[in-house]
């Protein structure tokens, strides 16, 4: 029985377990040329990937689902990336209203690696028909991007 794409187990993006062959390589400081591993829990396998993030310099992984990895590029702009096909889908930047009270430049430089707590992709059979949901900010708000438009869910009022 074929598994449903909606029930797939997410990947884990890990540091490589292999050591670089050439210790004096000048690329060791460039995160795009460092080897990485992908842990596929459904197969119980770890795949080594040389220069995995080449083309996505400074990218930061914030989630994965349905075979796609959700990255934030060095400017904090979300990218959907399918590692086995090397397909990338660029999403629009997070709206400035999501980042308040911080300017976008402060988010990209200082908050990018901690601002999004979780990113989940819900996609149909076509990668262009996606919905990316995120949990973001210090107060853990929820938003989603559909058809290249970001929407923040309204804050829930708590009653006691």
TrEMBL record:
InterPro entries of this UniProt entry? F-box_BR-signaling, KIB1-4_b-propeller
A Pfam family annotated for this chain is Beta-prop_KIB1-4
Q: Where is the KIB1-4 beta-propeller domain?
A: 40-158
Q: What PANTHER family would the database entry show? A: F-BOX PROTEIN KIB2-RELATED, OS07G0183000 PROTEIN-RELATED
What name does this protein carry?
KIB1-4 beta-propeller domain-containing protein
